[in-house]
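Question: I have long wanted to understand how a fold can be written as tokens. Here is the record:
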Amino acid sequence: MTQLTLGRVTADRDRLRRLLQDYGVYLGVAVLLLVNVAFTPHFLSAENFRTQAVQVAPVLIVALGMALAIGTEGVDLSVGSVMALATSLVSLYLGYGPWIALLVAVAGGLVVGLANGSLIAFVGVQPIVATLALMVAGRGLALVLLPQLKQVHDPGMAALGSGAVLGVPYLVLIAAGLALLTAFVVRRTTFGRQLLALGDSRPAARLAGLPVRRVLILVYAASGAFAAVAGVLATARLTASDPTSLGTLMELSAITAVVVGGTPLSGGRVRIGGTVAGAVLIQLLTATLIKHDLPPSWTQIAQAVVIVLAVYAARERGKR
């Protein structure tokens, strides 16, 4: 084999690897869909698609906020605890009406996000450390406010959890709207360009005069707010507040969705479409294993494999 031929083979291999890294998530979704169509009874029913879409909505919403944090070369480990805090606040303030409860819950998520952002931007704490601290504190506060599961009996919350427009559930519409909004912010606004520049090189962003601290605070505030919205929607769907389990391991699912979707852990890039596909991939994988009567342990193992592959893919992207 000549040197020229060897070079072409290497170039083709690198091109194929990049395509798989950038678009492999869509291939994974397509493969899982085909497998389920072939082997899962009643998979193509409208009710099944509705169920899958409703279940993926909270994961997607949390992943959108996580994508912004990872885009700045950070991470937000507190999102699961924010969901738990949001469900506790909803239960406590539901007596004032569902809208008041929703606003208080989102405000709680904003406060946690602002605390994360302030620790990172002003104190200089590493994102993984700052958000880990709020992850522990947030779950603890949620349990102090609501020590155990509590049923939610409110027509407004019930309508939010089970209502639909033209057959499309409210939860799906909200998740889709937030995805479109996040994509617009990242691609079309000055804030989005500043976010990507910060993730690409924070020292260079500072030298260029970009408002690094403000961007970081807004990013983590948005992540906290998105997680709180996801907590409210999950509460409405389940018609119960359970801070002991709601949001557990959600941070891992969100990180996996973001990284599998093509957003590198090294920052400087945010792929919202890939994040949506990553969230769908995780939901389809979990649903496939459950529908074929595999124990929960196998579901956890499969998700762990996806996480390892996602991190490996992100490492390869960081080399480019």
In short: The chain has a mean pLDDT of 88. Residues 24 and 105 are 36 Å apart (CA to CA).
